[in-house]
Amino acid sequence: MNYEFPGALPNQNIILTRTSLIEEANCVLIFAFYKGKLVLVRHHCRGWELPGGNREEGESIIQTVIREMYEEAGGELESIERIGQYLIYEQGHLVFVKNIYISKVSVLRELPNGFETDEVMLLETIPKQIEIMEDPAFSPYMKDSVYLIVAEWIKGHPFTSL
């Protein structure tokens, strides 16, 4: 089943699916759990959001997950599972293919210097969409339906508990 809805930013449209519509993703989004707690990072401009980012030249998509988790949260991953993919169209043109992962973090180290995030927050419970929508401290990227739908998909997943 595919979901289609507007993106968080103007002129965006998103298609979300549990399968892969396009084999080569250029970005990742990570629902990471450390000791059963959801890991959020504070981007220095956008606010609180899930770790993730762009794939670099010559990097596999799993290497992207590992690198982004370290750069944005100081996290080392024990387990990684792809749980979906979404496509972001801007003005009708495909600009991002993001694979969505759930991961179990084995270690959280100090944030490395020189990257885009300033802080890590661990949450006992996955915030409800309404909490995110009403709180300006959250990134606009958390305010589309991707988070809402995937939060339902991961309920009860083994990575979400100790």
Automatic annotation (TrEMBL):
Protein name stated in the entry: NUDIX domain-containing protein
Keyword annotations from UniProtKB, A to Z: Hydrolase
Is Hydrolase one of the keywords? yes
Q: Which GO terms describe its molecular function?
A: hydrolase activity
Q: Which residues form the Nudix hydrolase domain?
A: 21-148
Tagged with keyword RNA-binding: no
- Specify the superkingdom: Bacteria
The record's listing under Pfam families reads: NUDIX
SUPFAM superfamilies documented for this protein: Nudix (SSF55811)
Please give the InterPro entries that the UniProt record associates with this protein.
NUDIX_hydrolase-like_dom_sf, NUDIX_hydrolase_CS, NUDIX_hydrolase_dom
